[in-house]
Specification:
Keywords: Apoplast, Copper, Lignin degradation, Metal-binding, Oxidoreductase, Repeat, Secreted, Signal. By secondary structure, this protein is mainly beta. It has helices at about 10-25, 180-190, 215, 340-350, 415-420, 505, 550, and strands at about 35-50, 50-60, 65-70, 75-80, 90, 120-125, 130-135, 145-150, 165-175, 200-205, 220-225, 230-235, 240-245, 250-255, 260-265, 270, 275-285, 295-300, 315-320, 370-380, 395-400, 405, 455, 460, 465-475, 480-485, 490-500, 515-520, 520-525, 525-535, 540-545, 555-560. The radius of gyration is 24 Å and the shape is globular.
C-alpha cells in the first residue's frame, strides 16, 4: 500500500464501529465496567492502646479495603463469612435503584450471612459521584468492618471545582474499643442502661499520640508536598459520636457531601456525623524553611447527651517532612466546645447543592404526602429485673423511638422478602403513625409518661409519590442530635430550625432552589429538620439513627415503597443465592 493512503470502509459494520468509537471518545460516554471485589470476613489480631485482641476484618485489614468505581459502573462484591457471627454489608449512600436485595441491613432487605456462608452483592452506581462507604449492618460489627467506597466521575468528566487535587486520600474517622463491642452492646441491652463508651477515636484505624505510649506509634501520617492540593475523602465511621475535625494552621474547602457536589465553601473546622461523608480540599503551604515540619490533625466529639461519652481528642499528622516528630504537646487546632450547637448550626447552613445545568437540584416543589416524626429517647418499664436492677433512668430501661414507636427487628424473614411475597402477617404491620399519637411540647418540659410502644411497623408509599418529612427532636431524657440515615434514597434538606416546628411560619422559609442533597442528616439538638424526596425506588427501606446505641434501642422505621405500573418500576425477584433466615 502506498504511503499516506487510507483504507475506507463503508459497510454497515464499519460505520457502526466508527460511531461507537466516536461515542466512547466523548466525555462521560465511555462504557461502564463491572468491578469485582472479594470480601473474606475473618478474625484478625490487632493491637491498639497497648491492647491486643482478635477483631472481625475484611481481607485481614482494619479498616477494610478501598473500593473504587466510576459513575455508571456495576459493582459485584462476593462476601465469604468465615467468623462465628452472622454478618451483612451495607453500601452506605448507594441509591440501589431496583437492587434492594443488595442494600444489606440485616432482616430488612436480607437475612444475615451465616458463618460459613457466602453472598454476592450486585448493583449499579447511578447518578452519584464522590465519597460513600461500606460497613457491616449487623449488631455493632461495623466497629471494625468498614471501608471507603470512592465513586469517580465518568472518564473525561472533570470535577466541577478547582483546583484539581494532586492527590486524593480516604480518611476514615472511627472509634476503638478495648473491649469487644459486641459484648458492650450485649451488656447494655441486658441491663437496660447505657453502654460503655469507646476508648479512642481513630484516623484510618490509628489513634495517635494523645492516648498512651503505645498509641504514639500508631499515628496516621499524611505526607504532603508544598503547594500541592489534596482532596480528603472524609467519612465518619464512628459508632456513636459526631465529630469536630480540623487541621492546625490550614483551612479546608468543602466541595462534596454524601456523594453529591456542593457549592464550595471554606471553613477552619468541620463537623461530621456518623454515616456522613465530605470531600474537602486542603492546599499545603508553600515551602518555608522556618515553618514546622508537621501539623496536628485533630478530631473531638460533638454531643449534648446527658450520659457519658468518649470525651477525648485524637491526633494525626500532616507532614511536610517525612518522619517529623509528632507528640501530644504539638499545638492542636482550636476546636469548639463539645456541646457547641451554635457552631454546628452555622457550619451546617453553608451546605448548598450546585444546582447547575449539569448537576441540577431536582427538588420536589409540590408534596403528595407530609409526615411529622418526633425523634428521641424514651423508656421501657422494668418488668424483668436483671441482677436486681434496671439501669436506665429512674429504674427503667433505655429505649428510643420515632412517633413513640420503637422499631422491632423481625427474625423469621426479611421485610423485603415478606413484601415481595406479600406475606405480611406475623412479620410487619403497615400502620406506622404519620404524626405523634399524642402531641406535646417537643423541646419543652417532657411528658410524664415516657414509655414507648414496640412493633415492626412500616409506612407504605405509592410509587413516585413526593414526600416531605419533618424530623423533630424531643427533650425526653435530654435533647440531643440524631443523625438520621435513609436507605435507598438521597433527599433534599429544605429547612431546619430550633425549637418546635411551626408549619404556619417555617414552611415559608424553605430553600427550594439549591438545598443540599444528602443521605444522612442530623436532627438538631432541640430543633427540627425538613427533608423531601421522590419515592421512585420500590422496596423496603429503613430510616434510622446512625448512633448505633440508639438504633439498638429502636430508633428506626421503614418505608414500604410499592411498585410502579411499568416493568422498570417494579422490584425484581431476589437473587437465587440470597441467605435464608
Amino acid at each position: 500500500m502506498a504511503a499516506g493512503r487510507r483504507l475506507r470502509c463503508l459497510s454497515p459494520a464499519c460505520l457502526f464501529l466508527a460511531v461507537a468509537v466516536a461515542l466512547l471518545a466523548m466525555p462521560g460516554l465511555a462504557a461502564a465496567r463491572t468491578r469485582r471485589y472479594t470480601f473474606n470476613v475473618t478474625m484478625s489480631t490487632v493491637t491498639r492502646l497497648c491492647v491486643t485482641k482478635s477483631v472481625p476484618t475484611v481481607n485481614g485489614r482494619f479498616p477494610g479495603p478501598k473500593i473504587v468505581v466510576r459513575e455508571g459502573d456495576r459493582l459485584v462484591v462476593q462476601v465469604h463469612n468465615n467468623i462465628n457471627n452472622n454478618v451483612t454489608f451495607h453500601w452506605h449512600g448507594v441509591r440501589q435503584l431496583r437492587s434492594g436485595w443488595s442494600d444489606g441491613p440485616s432482616y430488612i432487605t436480607q437475612c444475615p450471612i451465616r458463618p460459613g456462608q457466602s453472598y454476592a452483592y450486585d448493583f449499579r452506581i447511578v447518578g452519584q459521584r464522590g465519597t460513600l462507604w461500606w460497613h457491616a449492618h449487623f449488631s455493632w460489627l461495623r466497629a471494625t468492618l468498614y471501608g471507603p467506597l470512592v465513586i469517580l466521575p465518568p472518564r473525561g468528566v472533570p470535577y466541577p471545582f478547582s483546583p484539581k487535587p494532586d492527590r486524593e486520600v480516604p480518611l476514615m474517622l472511627g472509634e476503638w474499643f478495648n473491649a469487644d463491642p459486641e459484648a458492650v452492646i450485649k451488656q447494655a441491652l441486658k441491663t437496660g442502661g447505657g453502654p460503655n463508651v469507646s476508648d479512642a477515636y481513630t484516623f484510618n484505624g490509628l489513634p495517635g499520640p494523645t492516648y498512651n505510649a503505645c498509641a504514639a506509634a500508631d499515628t496516621f501520617r499524611l505526607r504532603v508536598q508544598p503547594g500541592q492540593t489534596y482532596m480528603l475523602r472524609i467519612v465518619n465511621a464512628a459508632l456513636n459520636d459526631e465529630l469536630f475535625f480540623a487541621v492546625a494552621n490550614h483551612s479546608l474547602t468543602v466541595v462534596g457531601a454524601d456523594a453529591s457536589y456542593v457549592k464550595p465553601f471554606v471553613s477552619n473546622t468541620l463537623v461530621i456525623s456518623p454515616g456522613q461523608t465530605m470531600d474537602v480540599l486542603l492546599t499545603a503551604a508553600a515551602a518555608n524553611p522556618s515553618s514546622p515540619a508537621a501539623y496536628a490533625i485533630a478530631v473531638a466529639p460533638y454531643t449534648n447527651t446527658v450520659g457519658t461519652f468518649d470525651n477525648t481528642t485524637a491526633v494525626a499528622a500532616l507532614e511536610y517532612a517525612p518522619g517529623a516528630a509528632l507528640s501530644s504537646s504539638l499545638p492542636l487546632p482550636p476546636l469548639p466546645l463539645y456541646n457547641d450547637t451554635g457552631f454546628v448550626a452555622n457550619f451546617s447552613a453553608n451546605f448548598r447543592s450546585l444546582a447547575s445545568a449539569r448537576y441540577p437540584a431536582r427538588v420536589p416543589r409540590s408534596v403528595d404526602r407530609r409526615f411529622f416524626f418526633a425523634v428521641g429517647l424514651g423508656a421501657d418499664p422494668c418488668q424483668s429485673r436483671v441482677n436486681g436492677t434496671c439501669q436506665g433512668p429512674n429504674g427503667t430501661r433505655f429505649a428510643a423511638s420515632m412517633n413513640n414507636v420503637s422499631f422491632a427487628m423481625p427474625r423469621s424473614t426479611s421485610l423485603l422478602q415478606a413484601h415481595y411475597q406479600r406475606r405480611y402477617s406475623g412479620v410487619l404491620t403497615a400502620n406506622f403513625p404519620a404524626a405523634p399519637p399524642v402531641p406535646f411540647n417537643y423541646t419543652g418540659t417532657p411528658p410524664n409518661n415516657t414509655f414507648v410502644m414496640h412493633g415492626t411497623r412500616v409506612l407504605p408509599l405509592g410509587y413516585n409519590a413526593t414526600v416531605e418529612v419533618v424530623l423533630q427532636d424531643t427533650s425526653i431524657l435530654g435533647a440531643e442530635s440524631h443523625p438520621l440515615h435513609l436507605h435507598g434514597y438521597d433527599f433534599f434538606v429544605v429547612g431546619t430550625g430550633f425549637g418546635n416546628y411551626d408549619a404556619n411560619n417555617d414552611t415559608a422559609k424553605y430553600n427550594l432552589v439549591d438545598p443540599v442533597q444528602r443521605n444522612t442528616i442530623s436532627v438538631p439538638t432541640a430543633g427540627w429538620v425538613a427533608i423531601r424526596f421522590v419515592a421512585d425506588n420500590p422496596g423496603v427501606w429503613i430510616m434510622h439513627c446512625h448512633l448505633d446505641v440508639h438504633l439498638s434501642w429502636g430508633l428506626a422505621m421503614a418505608w414500604l415503597v410499592n411498585d410502579g405500573p411499568l416493568p422498570n418500576q417494579k422490584l425484581p425477584p431476589p437473587p437465587s443465592n440470597i441467605p435464608k433466615c
